[in-house]
Amino acid sequence: MMDELRELYQEVILDHGKSPRNFRDIEGATGHAHGKNPLCGDQLVVYLKVDDGDVIEDVSFVGKGCAISVASASMMTELVKGKTVEQAHILFDRFHDMCTGDDAAPADASLDPEDLEKLTVLTGVRAFPVRVKCATLAWHTLNAAIEGKEESSSE
Ligand code: ZN
After folding, report:
1. 73 C-alpha vs ligand 1 centroid, how far in Å?
2. Exposed (0-12), middle (13-18) or buried (19+): which is 131, by Cβ within 10 Å?
3. Which of 52, 70, 75, 80 has the smallest count of CB within 10 Å of its CB?
4. Rounded distance from Cα 37 to ligand 1 centre (Å)
5. The pLDDT of residue 91 is above 70
């Protein structure tokens, strides 16, 4: 990766890590889940509000963790808000592939290339397996919240 690009990516992660978006709980949430990544000490709670049409009307998180986990959670909330539950699942699958280096197959046509580009900043973690868990924690926790489970662990 070019140095300039890497710097830009780091800036985005630092910005989200310092001032996370949607860092709050949701009154009247339809689901929430706790997620933890014991390897790093990251702990999050993800809240969401899904409407009758399966659209994620609102999504938020609180918690503490390393810059990667917080930045990833912050970006996750921005990306899945307004999407359907199914679209969020598809996006997570793709993001997971991007983080683990298994992204050779073409992306699902329903995915917005702009969304994928935003997630690219986090895929530097693929060189560090421990960091992959930090980057995907918020997404695992979102899934647990959607499925009505209260606990999610990256283990
Ligand atoms: Zn972490």
Report:
1. 11
2. buried
3. 52
4. 7
5. yes
pLDDT, position 26: 97
Q: Ligand 1 mean position to 11 CA, how many Å?
A: 17
pTM, 2 dp: 0.91
Domain-wise residue ranges, the chain:
2-153
| The domain made up of 2-153 is a member of CATH 3.90.1010.10 | yes
State pLDDT tens for residues 60-76.
999 999 999 999 999 99
Tokens 């592939």: give the residue.
97
Half-sphere exposure of residue 139: CA atoms within 13 angstroms, side-chain side: 26
100 CA → ligand 1 middle, Å? 16
Side-chain-side CA neighbours of 146 within 13 Å: the count stands at 22
pLDDT at residue 135 greater than cutoff 80: yes
